[in-house]
Amino acid sequence: MKALVFQGPGRTVWRDVPDPAIRDPADVIVRVDATTICGTDLHIVKGDLPEVVPGRVLGHEAVGTVVGSGGDVRSVRSGDRVLISCISSCGRCRFCRERRYGQCRGGGGWVLGHSIDGTQAEYVRVPFADLSVYPLPSTVDSADAVLLADIFPTAYEVGVLNGNVRPGDTVVVVGAGPVGLAAIATARLFSPARIIAVDLGPSRLAKAREFGAEATVSAAEEPERLVDDLTDDLGADVVMEAVGLPEAFEMCTRMVRPGGRIANIGVHGKPATLHLEDLWAKDITLTTGLVDTYSTPMLLRMLAAGRLPTSSLLTHRFELRQMQEAYEVFSHAGETGALKVVLGESRHDDLAVSNPSRTQRT
Description:
Elements: E1 2-8, E2 11-16, E3 28-36, H1 39-46, E4 62-69, E5 81-84, H2 94-97, E6 123-126, H3 129-132, E7 133-135, H4 142-145, H5 151-161, E8 170-174, H6 178-187, E9 194-199, H7 202-211, E10 215-218, H8 223-230, E11 236-241, H9 246-255, E12 256-264, H10 276-279, E13 285-287, H11 296-304, E14 314-318, H12 323-331, H13 333-336, E15 340-343
Parallel strand pairs: 8-9, 8-11, 9-10, 11-12, 12-13, 14-15
Antiparallel strand pairs: 1-2, 3-4, 3-6, 3-15, 4-5, 5-7
Helix pairs in contact: 5-6
């Protein structure tokens, strides 16, 4: 089969690799019908996650069709269309019993495209299938469903729920990329008084308004001032960091009110300074986290009911063989306008492929 293989910092190749095979009775083999690229994949390619070794097939988000299963698999069978979660769960260890599946110590957690081969391939082996893949109703589009593999659960759990968004809150989301936009959309479920989006890109700020942000501001224009103006100099109740850069995190600490909450969502490849000399007396709650995906069944029900704005995030479509072109478009989002790219074989009606160039905006 063909797959995207990481070859070291700055180097990937779409090439032939061995077909995956069942290794454990709890495994399934899935033919990939739709996959996507995550900002975390870009961090891997940059070398920010050195534990990912050369030779690894990248990717941790996909929708596909089961083509084989181990003898212990009970929840799906060959021919079933499924969502592959970015998190695999053994279901037995202490953390899985607490629904903290991202911290699984039984061989799960974030393994796809990290410690085992991932989903940016024609086929993928998924461990712990009964707890790590979700059957999809026929009414749910593959391109929409793939956004529930990672970004929507991440935004909702690590951002909105960890930040404890409550009715009447002022919420600031720093970073209006795909996860930030999903955080805006799911924060609205809790009726905050206002949501403020911060980003450097005018097109992303316009998209944030579409998703429900009442106010937007460029990160280059002292967003702290706008937050102070809108809160009588108190600061925001909840600030979410959805960028993964030190300056973005440090900006969040300047916008939160005394007693407020900072929810870090972004993947950080460099140290950020925590100014405890300013924060120690402010009763700030700071949360971090790897998504656990315990919310995936609920989000799937919302998607099936038409309650999640997934399609608005999909800007570019490619065939699987165009994987490296898709990375080029996604990694130059400032030029291309890319939010989420989806890749799939042209045999699927719901993945009709466009052929955008780096400069095309959709």
